[in-house]
Amino acid sequence: MNTIEAYDLGILYYFGSLHRPWLDEAALAVTWLGNTRTLAVVVALAALVFVLVRRRRAGMAIVAASLAAWWLEYGVKRLVGRPRPDVAWRLIDLPGSPSFPSGHALVSMAVYGSLGLLSARTIRGPWRYAVGGVGFGLPIVIGLTRPYLGVHYLGDVFAGWVAGLACALAAGSIGEGEKGDSADGAGG
Questions:
Q1: Mind giving me the DSSP string for 27-96?
Q2: Whole-angstrom distance, CA of residue 151 vs CA of residue 55
Q3: In the chain, pLDDT over 70 holds for what percent of residues?
Q4: SS3 category, 43
Q5: Residue 56 and residue 46 in contact, taking contact as beta carbons nearer than 8 Å
Q6: Could you tell me the pTM of the whole model?
Q7: 3-state helix, strand, coil in the chain (%, to 5)
Q8: What are phi and psi of 77, to 5 degrees?
Q9: How many of the other CB atoms lie within 10 Å of CB of 131?
């Protein structure tokens, strides 16, 4: 066992020691927000709303970020092929896909991060920071549910966050400067 695997396993067992009935229920509810179906609905609704408010580039950006994230997750999982943790205290069935990177962490960071970043650009004042904060904070909480539930190592989650952040920042760049973008007063 190498050093990274030892840390991953130790941290995983630390998460296992945190189990409480109320926290188990909370983790199960929050992890649902990172499921593929949930994220697909969020992307479709967000893209539709962006198009309806004449922010087509933002709508295309969130779709592009989510597709890139799903493709990246699929490709890297197949390339790396890391087995999932096998712990007796796991709270959900093991998914059939490999462990690295965490798809919940990667795709939720790409989707919610993009949504927060692109939405914050249309808002003035302090709410703008709240919207952006939720967009990037929610995927962090979603990612933390994965080792808590016993289906990922923290390293898988961290890698997912980093890759998802790259997708979200790319979406922010694609949607930047669109006409109607009013957070900085430059929109029309």
A1: HHHHHHTTSHHHHHHHHHHHHHHHHHTT-HHHHHHHHHHHHHHHHHHHHHHHHH-PPPP--TT-SSPPPS
A2: 38
A3: 93
A4: helix
A5: no
A6: 0.87
A7: 70, 0, 30
A8: -60, -45
A9: 18
> Which amino acid is present at 114?
S
Rg of the chain, C-alpha, whole Å: 18
CA angle 9, 23, 34 (to 5 degrees): 75
CA quadruple 135, 105, 147, 145: dihedral, nearest 10: 30
Structure tokens at 11: 């941290």
pLDDT tens digits, 18-30: 889 999 999 999 9
Task: Tell whether the model's pLDDT for residue 178 goes beyond 70.
Answer: no
The hierarchical CATH code for the domain 3-175 is: 1.20.144.10
Task: Give the CA distances from residue 44 to residues 77, 120, 174, in Å, rounded to whole numbers and listed in that order.
Answer: 25, 18, 18
Residue 166 to residues 34, 44, 106, 107, 158, Cα–Cα distance (Å):
17, 21, 10, 11, 13
Which residue in 14, 165, 13, 154 sits closest to 87, CA to CA? 13
All structural domains of the chain with their residue ranges: 3-175
How is residue 77 written in tokens?
């999982």
* Tokens 């709410």, residue located: 127
69 Cβ contact list (under 8 Å, min separation 6): 106, 107, 109, 110, 111, 163, 164, 167
